[in-house]
Amino acid sequence: MTDQLIHDAIIIGSGPAGYTAAIYLGRAGYRPLVITGALTPGGQLVNTTEVENFPGFPDGILGPDLMDRMSAQAKKFGAELVQDDVVSVDFSGDIKTMRTDSGKEYQARAVIVATGSEPRKLGVPGEREYSGRGVSYCATCDGFFFRNKPIVVVGGGDSAMEEADFLSRFGSSVTIVHRRDTFRASRIMVDRVKQNPKIEFAMNAVVSAIRGDDKGGAAEVELTDTVTGDIRTIPANGVFVAIGHIPQTDFLGGALERNEDGTLRVDGSSTRTSIDGVFAAGDNADSVYRQAISAAGMGCRAALDAQAYLVSQDA
């Protein structure tokens, strides 16, 4: 079934990038359609407890509450929200076509892709159970909550080294767990963490389980030696997983050019993709910062780029 209206702008995805883009386009009078996703509109923040580093909330705000406020603000300025998943696209013509999981087809003159990314998971017992209660995928978001507590960082790349160094400001100790005997990270990053007296290493080891305490939070991790198979446990109230992110862009097929890490390629500091009239914002186009506030800022830029494109088409 085809939606008869050709929209000025459709935003695929919600979260800080999608909702901010909707707010800006709505205030500009374009009444954007936001296809939010079927299950959890709001992106990764709906699975986050307290957010303390988003400007304007000195006492913090729960992630789902922040997304509810952004959603309400977008609707206040005329955005229409549809809870569905885009499964395929055709960006070849001036009018872009999107098909959803429910079988509907939508068309628009301009499109903003703001589907975000998902952190790679360990896939071990206890990971899901203690997510948000000890297990985290963002050190800058959650490090503060583990002051003077033992922390584990899982990973061997630059991101893992950066997170371990950052978390050493808070934790009583930080243990980097890596499945090999050498790191993928750059030499300067490895040297930095090795010189940090609060950081220890568990090499040739994988986290095979996460266990909690009677208060409902993470308390320890089970480590399995990748060479000998020996199993041991170490205390960990904070378990930070830093093994990469997966941009949510597979539904696009080959419609847009991507970078080597899978993020959508944009033109310089703009949000313009390889197709005129299609823009990208948020973690699906950002492999560096991946913060709610930077995603919101990119959503603003995408809306302004889309608005400029629509004005040029009407000239």
TrEMBL record:
The keyword Glycosyltransferase does not apply. It is an enzyme of class 1 (oxidoreductase). InterPro entries: FAD/NAD-bd_sf (IPR036188), FAD/NAD-binding_dom (IPR023753), Ferredoxin-NADP_redctase_2 (IPR050097), Pyr_nucl-diS_OxRdtase_2_AS (IPR008255), Thioredox_Rdtase (IPR005982). GO terms for molecular function: thioredoxin-disulfide reductase (NADPH) activity. The lineage of its organism: Bacteria, Bacillati, Actinomycetota, Actinomycetes, Bifidobacteriales. One of its GO terms (cellular component) is cytoplasm. This is Thioredoxin reductase. It comes from Bifidobacterium catulorum. Its EC number is 1.8.1.9. GO terms for biological process: removal of superoxide radicals. Keywords: Disulfide bond, FAD, Flavoprotein, NADP, Oxidoreductase, Redox-active center. It catalyses: [thioredoxin]-dithiol + NADP(+) = [thioredoxin]-disulfide + NADPH + H(+). Binds 1 FAD per subunit. Homodimer. Its cofactor is FAD. The keyword Nucleotidyltransferase does not apply. Belongs to the class-II pyridine nucleotide-disulfide oxidoreductase family. It holds the Pfam family Pyr_redox_2. Residues 8-299 form the FAD/NAD(P)-binding domain.
